[in-house]
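Justification of resources, computational component.

The compute hours requested in this renewal are based largely on the per-chain cost of generating structure records like the one below. Each record pairs the submitted sequence with a full structure-token output. That output is archived, and it is also reused by downstream analysis tasks.
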Amino acid sequence: MAHAFVDLEEVSLAYGDTLAVAGCSLAVGRGEFAALVGTSGCGKSSLLKVIAGLVPPSSGAAVVDGREVKGPRGGIGMAFQNATLLPWRSTLDNVLLPLEVAEHERRTFRARRAQHVERAMALLRTVGLEEFADHAPYQLSGGMQQRANLCRALIHGPDLLLLDEPFAALDAFTREELWGVLQDLWLEQRFTVVLVTHDLREAVFLADTVHVVSKRPGRIVESRRTGLPRPRTLEDTFEPGFVDIVHGLRDSISAVRAA
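The structure output for this chain reads:
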């Protein structure tokens, strides 16, 4: 892909004697929504860590926005399976946390607090949590906590959002509801997304391109464009075209498991 925003170039990553990723190449365009799917332990989460600069590749290079990743960088939001909201902070204060700790934001946080609160409240309003801004995490359901988690990941206006199974711990109804929330946020702001998920319906619903990762050591063995119009609805997941893509991906993963 020409002018890829995220570009992994023959990346390998070893943890001691265990090779998690081997010669993996991946290109994600600016503003694209990409998903990584594959069997457990195939290196999907390791690829996110390399992109984020949390771990260096053993070989190869990760390039984001034209610059090689040498360590943690600004402009990235991350959300994981567990919301990990701080229990002693309100929903609003949890969302504001990245602005208090990020080196390039914390120096001016107090002076710009009113502006930051306004942005945080706008995000909370978008995900339906405006009236829960003063609530503690224990007063929120699991789905509400993940909505707050997404707001926290987006508060600093990142150009890249990395998601590691953010909805896996939720019930099916809440999970599907949050697909729509995330899609709405992405359609509004058009940040680049790399999503790791085991849910093939989730991948097809959200992504422009779904990348299938081989079993360990991981590498991309298939990249499939979904080509589905947006915005997508839950009713679309029952359409033959949608179902065919899901079944095709399932067949690809089954072949990977059997190889």
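Residues 167 and 175 are 6 Å apart (CA to CA). The chain is about 35% helix and 25% strand.
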